[in-house]
Amino acid sequence: MKLKTRAGSVVFDNVTKTYGQGAVTAIDNVSFTINLGELVTLLGPSGCGKTTTLRMIAGLEHATSGRILIGGKDVTQLPATDRDVSMVFQSYALFPHMSVAENVAYGLSVTGVAKAEAREKAEEGLNLVGLGGYGSRLPSELSGGQQQRVAVARALVLEPEVLLLDEPLSNLDAKLRRHVRTEIRDLQQKLGLTAVYVTHDQEEALAVSDRIIVMNRAVIAQQGTPRELYEQPQSEFIADFIGDANLVDGEIISIDGNHARVDIGGAQCNLRHRGQAKGPVRVAVRPDAVQLTGLAVIAGDVHVIETSLKGHITHAAYLGSQMQYSVATPIGELFVIDHRIDTPIIAGEEVAIGFSERGMAVVSAE
Amino acid sequence: MNRMLWFWLVIGWIGFAILPWYQQEYGFWTLEWLYDGYPMYGDYAPAILQTIIHQKFWLLSIAAFLLVPLALVRTGRDHPHYARILISCGLGGLIYLVGQGFFVGISGWGFGWLEAMFGPLDVRQYGLGYGAMFVAASLLVMLCTGLAAAGAMRGDVFVTSAIGTVIALVGLFVFFPVARIFIGSFVDIDGNLSGVAFIRNFLDDSIWGLGCLAGGVCGVAWNTAFLAVLTAVSTTLLGLSFALVVTRTGFRFKKPLRVLTVLPIITPPFVIGLALILLFGRSGAVTQFFADLLGVEAGRWLYGLPGIWLAQTLSFTPISFLVLIGVVEGVSPSMEEASQTLRAGRWKTFVNVSLPLMRPGLANAFLLAFIESMADFGNPMVLGGNYEVLSTEIFFAIVGAQNDAGRAAVLAMILLFFTLSAFAAQRFWLGKKSYATVSGKADNGAHVGLNPGMRLACYFTAIPWAIFTVVLYGMIFYGSFVKRWGFDNSLTFDNYSDAFGVGWSEHGIVWAGAAWDSFWTTLNISAIAAPLTAAVGLTTAYLLVRQNFRGKSAFEFGTMLSFAIPGTVIGVSYILAFNVPPFELTGTGVILVICFIFRNMPVGVRGGIAAMSQLDKSLDEASLTLGANSFTTFRRVILPLLRPAIVAALVYSFVRAITSVSAVIFLVSADHNMATSYIIGLVENGRYGVAIAYCSVLILVMLTAILVVNGLIGQRRLRREDRVEATPDKTATGNLREKHS
C-alpha cells in the first residue's frame, strides 16, 4: 500500500449560506472543527443543510458569509477544482464512457500527472478497495457494491486532505450496506484519513463515526460522540432523531449536584439535570427503558423503579426479536420495546409501568 | 490560465497588424488579396497600415486597447488592477471598434449630424473583415477574462467567455437585425426616418381592412391570422388522433405511422404544394378525372385559402403528431388506472382525467402550428393565388415592383408581433401549467385503451389522412418522371437529365445539368453550417443546464427567440442589417451560414438541454472535485456522453439548412444560389417536372444522410442503455431520438 495520506483538518467559522437573495437560508451561522484523521458524520433529516455543508467543503457551493479552512488554509473563495478534497457521490458519478481504470486515473490525468504514473496509482487504488484486475471493465459491468468501491478508489488516489462521502450507501441494499460501511471505516482508519460523511440514517452514523454533528433547520442541533448523543440528548429533537424516544412531561423536585429528582407521573427518578432549573421539564424515555408488568405477573427486576403508574396496552406487535407495545397512560401514549418475547402481554390488558434510569434524559423543550 | 490570455492577445495583434482589416470584394478565402497589392493597397491593408498610409488615423486608438494588457504579461493575476485593466480595455475596445464602424461609413460620416459638425469627410470604410473579427474576438475574451477575474462565475474564465460569446453572437445576429427592422419600419420610401411613413404603412387598408366581412377582401394581417388558426386547429386535431392511434390502440401498423413524423424534416417546404397541384390543380389528375366524369369546367379552387390550408395541414400535422405523442405518453398510466379503479369507464376516464392532463400539451401543439403556419413561406408562395399572407407580402414588398423596404419592415413587424405573442404565450403561460407526469420514477402499468367510439373516430381520421399523405409523396416521385403533367403523361428521364445531367469530355466529368451549381452550393453551405450550429447550440445548452448566473432566464429567452422569428422576417432583417458597413455580408456565403446557424440554433439548444438533463449533475461535480476545470469537464465528460445528441444536432441542422427557403430566398446571390430558391424559380417558370425531380433528389439525399447517421447511433445504443442508470427516465431520451431521427 503505497498511497500516502496528507490528512488535513476542516474548520467552519460562522458560515452562512443563503439562496435566492437571502430568501432561503440553507446554513445559518454554523461553526465546527473536524480534526485530523477523524471521521465525522453530518446527520440530520432531509433539508437540514447537511449536504449543503458537505458541498461547501468540496467547493461545489460557496459560503454567503463566514470562513472555511482546510488544512489551515482559507479556501472560502476557492472553486472545487482547486481544493484538495475529493468526494464520493451518492450516485457514485462514475463516468460511464470510461473504463474503471480510466475513471480512477481521471483525477490524476487532468491534474497533469504522467500517464504511466497515473495508471500505476490507479491500479494501486483499485487493489486497495479489492478490485485489482477490474480496471478494463466499464462501470456498468460492475455490481452496485463494486461501483461504490470504484468511486472510493477514485477519490482516494488523489490523496486528498479530506475525503467527503455523500450518503455513499444509500443505493445499496440493506445487508450490503452494513458490510460496506465497515469497509469504509476500516480503510479510513488504516489510512488515517480525515473524512466527512453525510447520512440521514442514524444507525449508520452511530456505527461509523468518531463524532457526529447533528443538524436541524440549518443549524447544528448537537455534536458529540455516538454515545454522548444517544445517552445524553440535549433536546427533544436529538432524543427523537437518534433512536426512538418517548417525550413526556416531568417535574424537577429537588437538585443535588449534577443530579435531580424528577417526578414523572408520580414515579420518581434520579437523572442528570443538565442545567435545567426546578420546575416542569421534558424527559426523553427510550422505548426499552419502560418496563411493563402485567398486573397478574410479579416483577423481579431490581433496576426497575417501582411506580404507581398504570396504563393499558392499546396495541401489541410481535417482531421476532422483540415485542412492541403502545400503552395508554396518564402521562400520554408510550411506545415500548420489550425483549421478553416469551411472555407477551395482550392488547387491552392493564399494566404497571416502571422506568430504567439508564435510558432516560432530561432534555430542553423546543 | 494566463497562457490563454497570451494566446488571445496574439490573435488580437494578428488581426490588427497582419490580416486585412476590411472585407475583400472577392472574398477572403480566394486569397486573391495576398498577391494583389497586400499589404499596401487600401482594400487589403491591415489596420496598422491603414492608419499610416490611408489616413484612417482613428484606427490607431484600437492599438491602445491591445497594448495596455501587454503590461499584465509579466505580473499576470498578481497585478493589483488585473481585472479592471482587462475589463476596461475589452469593453472600451469593443465599443470603440463597433462605434467607429457606424460613425465612418461607405461615404464618409455615417450620420448626417456628424457631417454637420465636422464638415465632409472624404475617407470611406467598407465592411469589417477578418482582421477586425480577430481583434473583436480578442477584445471579447479580454473582457470576459477580466470579468471572471473580478469574480464573475466564480472566476471561471471558460464559462464566462462562453456566456460572453453567445451573448455577443445572439446580440449581433438576432437582436441587431430585429432592431434594424424596427428602425426600418420608420423609414419612408426616400430613406428618411419619419413616423408618418410608419403610420401610413401600418394603418394601410391592405393590412387591416375588414372588407371580407362585407363580401370583399380582408387585410393581409387578418388573412394570415385566420389561416394560422384554421391550420392550428386542424393539425392539432389530426395530430391528436394520430397520437391516440399510436399510443392507445392495438393498431397494427404503428411503426409506418411513426415514420410520418420524419417527413416534414426532410421535405422542402413547397413540395406538398407542388404535389397538390399535380393532383388538384387545373390539369391535376383528380381534377381532370372529375372534369371528364361530370363534364364540368376544371376549377381553380386550389389556389387560395383552401389550397394553402390543405397544404399546411399536410405539412404540419406530422409535427403536432410528434409533439402529441410525447403529451399522450406523458399522462401517467397510474392516474388512468386510479380513475378506472374508482369505477370510471374508459370514456369517462379519457374525458375527465386524460384529456385535462393533456390540455397544456394540446395548447402547446396548437401554438406551435400557429407559429409554423404564420412563418410558412413555401406553400403560400406556390398555392397562394389571390389570398395574400404576410410572409409572401413581405417578399413581394422587397423583390417586387414596389421595392419598398419600409413597407416590408412594417409587415415584418406585424408578423413578428403575432409569432412572438404566440411564443410568449407558450413559454410564460403554458410553462407554468404543465402537468408533466414524467417524474423519473419508474411508472408501471399500461395506458388505458380508447373506448370503441373514440377508436373508430381516430381510425377514420388518421388512417385516410396517412394514406393521402403517402399518395402525395408518391405523386412527387411519379411526377418527376412525367413529361408534362396533364398534357403529355408519357414517362421520361428528361427532368433528371435537365437538372443533373453528367457528361464526359477530354477534361473529365462535365457537370452538365442546370441544377449542379446550386446543389453543390447547398450541400457545401449546409455542411459548414451544421457543425457550427451544433457547437453554438450545445454550448448554450450547457450554460443553461449546468451553470447558474443572473439573467439566465433572459439569456434563455434570447437564445430561443430566433425560433419564433419567421424566416421571411429574418431574411428582411438581415438585408437591412448586413447590407452596409460595418457589417457588410449580403451576397456572401457567410451570411447564409450565419443565417442557418441562428435559425436552427434553438433546435440544437433544445436537443442539448434534453440530453444534458439526462446526465446526472454529479458527473460534472465529480470531475470538478477531482481537479478538472470546467473546460476539461465539458470536453472529457459532457461531450463524450452527449455524442448521440451531437450527431442528432448535426444531422438536423444539415437537413434544415437544405430545406430552408423563407430566409434564404432573400439572401442568395448569383455566386451562392441555394437549391430551394432555384426550385422556386423553376416553379415560377412553370417547369414543374424539373422542380419535382430536383425535390426528389433532395429528399433522397437527406433520407440517406438520416439513415446513415441513424444506423451509426443505433449501433451505439447497445452500450448506451446501461449508461442511463443514474436517471431511469427513459421516455425523454426516446422522444429526443425520434424527434431528431
Helical amount among residues of chain B, as a percent range? 55-70%
Low-confidence stretches of chain A: 296-300
| Assembly state of the chains shown | heterodimer
Compute the average pLDDT of chain A.
89
Q: What is the CATH homologous superfamily assignment of the largest domain in chain A?
A: P-loop containing nucleotide triphosphate hydrolases
Structure characterization notes:
The complex is a heterodimer of chains A (366) and B (741). Chain A is an alpha+beta fold and 366 residues long. Chain A has 3 domains: 10-231, P-loop containing nucleotide triphosphate hydrolases (Rossmann fold, 3-Layer(aba) Sandwich), CATH 3.40.50; 243-284, SH3 type barrels; 287-358, Beta Barrel (OB fold (Dihydrolipoamide Acetyltransferase, E2P)). Chain A is built from 8 helices and 20 strands. Chain A has a 6-stranded mixed sheet, with helices on both faces. In chain A, strands 13-12-11-14-20 form a 5-stranded antiparallel sheet. A 5-stranded antiparallel sheet of chain A has the order 15-19-16-17-18, with no helix packed on it. The longest helix of chain A is centred in the middle third of the chain and has 18 residues, at 174-191. Chain A starts with 9 loop residues before the first strand and ends with a strand. With 741 residues, chain B is mostly helical. Chain B folds into 3 domains: 2-150, no CATH class; 207-488, Orthogonal Bundle (MetI-like fold), CATH 1.10.3720.10; 524-740, MetI-like fold (Orthogonal Bundle). Chain B is built from 34 helices and 6 strands. Chain B has a two-stranded antiparallel sheet with strand order 1-2. A two-stranded antiparallel sheet of chain B has the order 3-4. In chain B, a hairpin with a 2-residue loop joins β5 (502-505) and β6 (508-511). In chain B, α32 packs antiparallel against α33. Residues 437-442 and 715-741 of chain B have low confidence and may be disordered. Classes of the chains: A alpha+beta (366), B mainly alpha (741). The interface between A and B is medium-sized, with 30 and 26 residues.
